[in-house]
Design a protein that fits this description.
11 helices, mainly alpha
């Protein structure tokens, strides 16, 4: 009898594969960049001193997610693709959700950051903005940044949060719980309070879209649109 939902063991396989992939990626980056340059490529916060190395490190980090997800669901056979929500486009939500996301990003982010500053006294902008500003400095670097942070990163994050995690929680506890849990973990992964506050509304919207459309593609498209628009805005206006 075929497995009809994502199981806890699938998450364990994913975590094990992800850890293994990170180790391999770090060894490869160390061989490519050397210890000193690798340290510069991965600043704890703020701008980078070596944009090319940073983009390479980010790309390698995001890229290991793809085989880890594949290994996690491969035992489901033909059911693997629909379990992740990749078996259909999501219809009209494929273009509606990206438009809503970009509009909300430009309209709401400043208000959210102002509120965070009033409540917590945090800086008005997350440190990721400074990092993106140091990456998107020329048309070519902006294009590379869009490819890494605007495409590869969002695809990896959506496969984790609205793919595996959403699928597991929904199968056990229902759609509302899946939206809440996937959003909470998505926000926590961004660590910095100002950044967490900004991504919570986006996570809730993506979770709702995932449940409503029964597809991962609208959230991937929306996440790509959001990060790409943010990168272009940093280059053009930052």
């Amino acid at each position: 009898m075929p497995v009809s939902r994502i199981r806890f063991v699938d998450l364990l396989i994913f975590v094990a594969a992800l850890v293994g992939g990170f180790i391999v990626a770090m060894v490869g980056l160390l061989a490519w960049l050397g210890q000193e340059r690798l340290a510069l490529a991965m600043p704890e916060s703020g701008p980078t001193e070596d944009p090319i190395a940073t983009l390479g490190a980010l790309a390698a980090t995001f890229a290991v997610v793809l085989p880890a997800v594949a290994l996690a669901v491969i035992r489901h056979g033909q059911r693997a693709v629909p379990l992740l929500g990749l078996d259909h486009t999501g219809g009209r939500w494929l273009w509606i959700i990206p438009i809503i996301t970009v509009i909300l990003g430009f309209v709401g982010d400043d208000a959210i950051l102002w509120l965070v500053h009033q409540v917590l006294g945090e800086e008005s902008e997350p440190s990721i903005v400074a990092l993106m500003t140091s990456l998107a400095t020329t048309p070519l670097m902006t294009l590379l940044t869009v490819l890494v942070a605007g495409v590869i990163g969002p695809v990896a994050e959506e496969l984790i949060f609205r793919g595996l995690i959403f699928g597991y929680v929904e199968g056990r506890f229902g759609g509302t719980a899946a939206i809440v849990v996937s959003t909470a973990l998505f926000a926590a992964a961004h660590v910095e309070p100002a950044h967490v506050a900004v991504v919570i509304p986006m996570g809730l919207l993506f979770g709702w879209a995932r449940m409503r459309s029964r597809s991962l593609w609208p959230t991937i498209a929306a996440h790509v649109a959001n990060n790409t628009a943010a990168t272009l805005a940093v280059y053009l206006f930052g």
